């Protein structure tokens, strides 16, 4: 096997196949984890619970909606304090305080406005932690919602398993009926089953989630709270908790999080996550390396934080495919690994469709949603690659994922879509050239890859028309 064959087969066939097969393995493992959850009852007094809610640019109605949600918690409501940390204007904060004062609540609600806005969400969480009095702390996004028993069950899990932090299970919700929103409802559920419950069942280190992790406050204080300089607050604090030997557990307690319903929101969310995970991998690598975890767990943690790299590797490798005829080499995709890739895609797709149908989607909508989220993920590959580089270089920015329909398109995203469309046409041309040059398999693969870019460009235009 030549070096060219090895590189192409590794980055286009082998690594993507292993990623998908890992997801499949974790999916089947997650059922094992369900047997580990305890139904121990909490006797006696509830500890004081501090709920930290960072907010910026949200509607007052959304914040009041969270308070209404808390009213139904299975908890001693007098043992709850809500700490709202706002980065909004003083005028907005005053209006928010007046609106909250009119609410009939049995718990304390404190609204703080950060005068000195250090960092991003991590900075707001750290600010809230300094003002928290609870024995337990949970972080919530303002648009997250919980079942009445969610935190109670997470606390039971903490007691029965001796956990220092418990991550709740994400379930997506949306008021939109778009195919992308449906796709992300399924992807969010699948991600919780594999990356949270499945990894727990496999014995790997479980990370906190950004909205919906219940912590013992003393553990957060011990590691110094969140680092305001970092983007990915959940992964960042998770690595430092692990390095101190604290135990983070998974839970089947649900938390409902709003999913993006348009290209711009999806783009912002995914590129920020790619940037943030890479930043954590770079800046917290020594914490992982010198943690008290086993070598296997350390390696898996590093791989987990590298989850966006396969997307970048595939994109970079694809750029060189049209030049293969000039090197006079054989078609590199004529390999048994191609069959492995086909099989892994097929099995993963079947699991996705199964979960979609369990979410009451029709078979047609299930297939459409899988196609759309796959196309969008392929299309933003160049920008995922750039985000990974920015994460390593420390040149990162924090952009809040916009909610709802983006009715006024930003010139920046029109430019991004133009780039995506152009790349799609170039890959399409390259695929045709490869087929004409008798590189049939790699040519067809590149046409398949190009389709994601072209579809996304047309889909964005359609989004703007709706």
Automatic annotation (TrEMBL):
<dbReference type="InterPro" id="IPR050321">
    <property type="entry name" value="Glycosyltr_2/OpgH_subfam"/>
</dbReference>
<keyword id="KW-0328">Glycosyltransferase</keyword>
<feature type="transmembrane region" description="Helical">
    <location>
        <begin position="6"/>
        <end position="29"/>
    </location>
</feature>
<feature type="transmembrane region" description="Helical">
    <location>
        <begin position="302"/>
        <end position="327"/>
    </location>
</feature>
<keyword id="KW-1133">Transmembrane helix</keyword>
<dbReference type="Pfam" id="PF13632">
    <property type="entry name" value="Glyco_trans_2_3"/>
</dbReference>
<feature type="transmembrane region" description="Helical">
    <location>
        <begin position="373"/>
        <end position="393"/>
    </location>
</feature>
<protein>
    <submittedName>
        <fullName>Undecaprenyl-phosphate 4-deoxy-4-formamido-L-arabinose transferase</fullName>
    </submittedName>
</protein>
<dbReference type="GO" id="GO:0016757">
    <property type="term" value="F:glycosyltransferase activity"/>
</dbReference>
<dbReference type="GO" id="GO:0016020">
    <property type="term" value="C:membrane"/>
</dbReference>
<dbReference type="InterPro" id="IPR001173">
    <property type="entry name" value="Glyco_trans_2-like"/>
</dbReference>
<feature type="transmembrane region" description="Helical">
    <location>
        <begin position="333"/>
        <end position="353"/>
    </location>
</feature>
<dbReference type="InterPro" id="IPR029044">
    <property type="entry name" value="Nucleotide-diphossugar_trans"/>
</dbReference>
<feature type="domain" description="Glycosyltransferase 2-like">
    <location>
        <begin position="137"/>
        <end position="346"/>
    </location>
</feature>
<feature type="transmembrane region" description="Helical">
    <location>
        <begin position="442"/>
        <end position="461"/>
    </location>
</feature>
<keyword id="KW-0808">Transferase</keyword>
<keyword id="KW-0812">Transmembrane</keyword>
<keyword id="KW-0472">Membrane</keyword>
<feature type="transmembrane region" description="Helical">
    <location>
        <begin position="413"/>
        <end position="435"/>
    </location>
</feature>
């Amino acid at each position: 096997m030549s070096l060219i064959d090895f590189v192409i087969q590794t980055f286009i066939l082998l690594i993507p196949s292993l990623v998908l097969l890992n997801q499949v393995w974790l999916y089947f493992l997650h059922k094992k984890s369900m047997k580990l959850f305890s139904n121990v009852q909490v006797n006696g007094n509830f500890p004081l619970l501090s709920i930290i809610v960072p907010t910026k640019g949200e509607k007052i109605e959304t914040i009041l909606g969270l308070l209404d949600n808390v009213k139904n918690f299975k908890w001693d409501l007098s043992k709850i304090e809500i700490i709202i940390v706002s980065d909004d204007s003083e005028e907005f904060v005053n209006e928010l305080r007046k609106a909250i004062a009119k609410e009939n609540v049995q718990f304390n609600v404190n609204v703080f406005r950060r005068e000195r806005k250090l960092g991003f969400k991590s900075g707001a969480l750290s600010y809230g932690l300094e003002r928290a009095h609870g024995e337990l702390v949970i972080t919530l996004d303002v648009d997250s919602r919980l079942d009445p028993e969610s935190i109670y069950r997470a606390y039971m899990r903490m007691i029965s398993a001796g956990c220092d932090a418990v991550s709740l299970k994400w379930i997506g919700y949306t008021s939109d009926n778009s195919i992308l929103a449906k796709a992300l409802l399924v992807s969010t559920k699948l991600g919780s089953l594999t990356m949270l419950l499945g990894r727990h069942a496999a014995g790997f280190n479980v990370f906190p989630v950004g909205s919906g992790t219940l912590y013992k406050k003393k553990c957060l204080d011990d590691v110094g709270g969140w680092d305001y300089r970092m983007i990915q607050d959940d992964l960042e604090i998770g690595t430092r908790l692990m390095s101190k030997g604290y135990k983070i557990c998974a839970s089947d307690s649900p938390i409902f999080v709003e999913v993006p319903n348009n290209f711009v929101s999806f783009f912002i969310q995914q590129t920020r996550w790619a940037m943030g995970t890479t930043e954590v991998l770079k800046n917290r690598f020594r914490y992982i390396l010198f943690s008290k975890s086993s070598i296997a767990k350390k390696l898996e943690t590093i791989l987990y934080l590298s989850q966006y790299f396969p997307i970048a590797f595939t994109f970079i490798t694809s750029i060189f495919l049209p030049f293969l005829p000039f090197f006079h080499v054989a078609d590199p995709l004529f390999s048994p690994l191609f069959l492995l890739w086909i099989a892994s895609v097929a099995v993963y797709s079947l699991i996705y469709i199964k979960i979609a149908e369990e979410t009451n989607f029709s078979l047609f909508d299930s297939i459409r949603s899988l196609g759309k989220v796959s196309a969008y993920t392929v299309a933003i590959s160049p920008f995922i690659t750039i985000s990974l580089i920015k994460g390593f270089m420390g040149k990162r920015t924090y952009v809040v994922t916009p909610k709802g329909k983006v009715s006024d398109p930003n010139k920046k995203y029109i430019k991004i879509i133009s780039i995506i469309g152009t790349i799609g046409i170039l890959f399409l041309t390259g695929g045709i050239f490869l087929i004409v040059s008798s590189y049939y398999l790699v040519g067809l693969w590149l046409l398949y890859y190009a389709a994601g870019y072209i579809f996304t460009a047309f889909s964005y235009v359609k989004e703007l028309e709706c």
